[in-house]
Structure to design on (207 residues):
């Protein structure tokens, strides 16, 4: 199956329209995503020391409001391929991530209100094991744009990695996504806080 075909067939819905079993299926059971459960930027303290797996799982359940299609908010989107849950992308107001407020990555070279609720953030993209290498991160990233805009965001930003031919980046590192994935979705670079990390953004009021 080609990347193009797989991407074209991906159906993306808010996570509250998915069941929690489907969300957990995407995260898997064995690697970084399965242990973090998208809590690294949310929990107080050091994630592995100050929270248990069971606590992180319950936090994810509450944040996604999975199985509650009428919920007023959720914390991400779930992608389906042939009705199989295969992808996750975390996207919500930037203020939902307390550790973003104190991280130097979003703010290096920038001066703006860190507590602006109208700026949204894409912090994690996961493709289920067995479905990777099909280009599914591209439609997942693209889906965040209209989703954030339709819910009143003034801007949406991401913090992807720069990937280079011949230089290996582990799947755990790449959970933030690759720069080219967000470029394809229409994001533009606004800063480069580290050698391998960029901040990319779409400002809807400037479109």
């Amino acid at each position: 199956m080609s990347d193009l075909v797989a991407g074209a067939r991906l159906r993306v819905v808010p996570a509250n329209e998915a069941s929690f079993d489907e969300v957990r299926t995407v995260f898997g059971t064995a690697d970084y995503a399965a242990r973090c459960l998208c809590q690294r930027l949310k929990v107080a303290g050091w994630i592995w020391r100050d929270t248990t797996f069971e606590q992180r799982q319950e936090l994810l359940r509450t944040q996604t409001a999975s199985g509650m299609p009428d919920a007023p908010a959720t914390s991400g989107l779930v992608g389906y391929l042939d009705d199989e849950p295969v992808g996750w992308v975390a996207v919500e107001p930037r203020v939902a991530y307390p550790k973003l407020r104190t991280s130097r990555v979003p703010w290096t070279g920038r001066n703006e209100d860190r507590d602006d609720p109208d700026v949204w953030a894409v912090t994690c993209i996961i493709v289920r094991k067995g479905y990777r290498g099909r280009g599914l991160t591209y439609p997942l990233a693209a889906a965040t744009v209209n989703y954030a805009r339709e819910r009143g965001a003034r801007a949406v930003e991401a913090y992807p990695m720069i990937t280079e031919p011949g230089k290996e980046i582990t799947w755990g590192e790449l959970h933030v996504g690759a720069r080219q994935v967000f470029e394809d979705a229409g994001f533009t670079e606004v800063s480069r806080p580290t050698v391998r990390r960029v901040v990319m953004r779409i400002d809807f009021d400037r479109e």
